Structure formats: structure tokens, C-alpha cells
Amino acid sequence: MTSRVWTCDIDDCLAQVGHVDYDLRQDSPYTVRVIHDGPNPRPHLEEYASFLQALGYRTTVQDATDIRPLRLKITQA
Question: Would you say 25 and 11 are in contact if contact means Cβ atoms under 8 Å apart?
Fold first, then answer.
């Protein structure tokens, strides 16, 4: 079964390495999404993804839609 993922854990991980300008959203007990608030979000989200993958999280960059911005989906591997 998939382990739970919490926004506070992801926030701590990203803050420890100096990442800023992001918003976190808890979509379910098993899914957190990250949205970058600055310009050029894709490189930042890819950087977040590679860092979090090294910590054992499963990440997926999700393209923008009409109502949703470009975002990073995070679940526990």
C-alpha cells in the first residue's frame, strides 16, 4: 500500500536546500502537488522533482490545463 505524503514533509525537504517561491497543496492523504510561483516554472519543478526522487518520492510533472497551472505531483514510491 502507498504511504502517506504530507505537505509539511515536502515543505521541509524543499526549504532545507533553499528552494523558495512554491505553493504546496494536499490533494489527498497520498498526493501533494507543488506549483512554482515565479517565472519559468518548468525548470524549477524539474529541479524539485529530481531532488525529491533522490529522497524516495515518486514525482510527475503535470502540464497546465485551462483551469490548472503547470504542477508537480508527488506520491510516495
Answer: no
Residues in contact with 65: Cβ distance below 8 Å, sequence separation at least 6, in sequence order: none
Q: What is the pTM of this model?
A: 0.93
For the sheet containing 22-28, what is the strand order? Answer: 22-28, 31-36, 71-76, 57-62
DSSP the chain: -PPP--HHHHHHHHHHTT--SEEEEEEETTEEEEEE-SS-HHHHHHHHHHHHHHTTEEEEEE---SSS-SEEEEEE-
- Tens of pLDDT, residue by residue over 1-29, are 468 999 999 999 999 999 999 999 999 99
